[in-house]
Amino acid sequence: MSMHRVVFAIFFLSLASMASSAQVVTYTFGDSLTDVGNNNFLQFSLAKCNYPWYGIDYNGGQATGRFTNGRTIGDIISEKLGITSPPPYLSVPKNIDALLKGVNYASGGAGILNDTGLYFIERLSFDDQINYFKKTKEAIRTKIGDEDANRHCNEAIYFIGIGSNDYINNFLQPFLADGQQYTPDEFRELLISTLDEQLTILYQLGARKIIFNGLGPLGCIPSQRVKSKTGQCLKHVNEWIRQFNSKIQKLIKKLNRRLPNAKLIFADTYPLVLELINNPTAYGFKYIVLQCRHKYRRFMLAKL
Ligand SMILES: *[C@@H]1O[C@H](CO)[C@@H](O)[C@H](O)[C@H]1NC(C)=O
């Protein structure tokens, strides 16, 4: 078993220990890596992918709003937990039975900061997603009462994967303010202190078991590689991401100490994704540098 498989196995073991009750309920927050269709409900959003050939390898072969040909990481984890992948929140905002079974708030183009991805016109920022979870909790409380609603929220598992767009569709865009206003260190500290507040709010709303997905090597995605003369990964971008991942791990330790019964864990996806980029054929991939192109569009945004 390779080191990465061991890491993954340990991750699923921790998941299994978190998922003690019979029916696991999950609430997912994030960006295009986990969006299962919320942006289809945002009329003016430019961060959409409900057209071919998205979904060609998904059940039924149709586009669903997932930014992929197949399943998202959330879909795969749901399957491992033995549950159906929760629906997009915006498809069921008033359906209490659905809310009780878990929903997904993730939105392509979203970030930790409000203004991340602003040129997509509409997307649910992490704050928006947390506000929708607050509404979810209020609806559940009205239905099953205070005590049961609290227990329900305490027992659920929360998946969060956010932050990539704060770099790709904010800090690294020279025409947006944040890249000019902050140094890389200041920007990272802004992200971490904002996340500190956001995770604390989630905790106050009842979240206890939280899995935070670290960022992958964003310097290696096509939209960044094209900035290097030889198409190589951008080392400075990868270095910023490693620093972000290291700071978020420290924040998670701090929150676990500060918040009673909090059980946050960090899922370190960076080395796994890098391994895939370095050894694509071992995992059945042929091309790792090419940006996907869509028949009817001049270009496709590689990372929303
Ligand atoms: C986003 O905007 C709202 C409303 O102006 C504000 O209350 C909130 O603090 C902002 N969040 C972030 C992360 O900047």
TrEMBL record:
Q: Which Pfam families match?
A: Lipase_GDSL
Spell out the family assignment given in the record's similarity comment.
Belongs to the 'GDSL' lipolytic enzyme family.
For this UniProt entry, the molecular function terms from Gene Ontology, in alphabetical order, are: hydrolase activity, acting on ester bonds
- Is the keyword Lipid biosynthesis assigned to this protein? no
Q: Which residues cross the membrane?
A: none
Organism per entry = Lupinus albus
Q: What is the lineage of its organism?
A: Eukaryota, Viridiplantae, Streptophyta, Embryophyta, Tracheophyta
Keywords in alphabetical order, please: Hydrolase, Lipid degradation, Lipid metabolism, Secreted, Signal
Protein known as: Putative triacylglycerol lipase
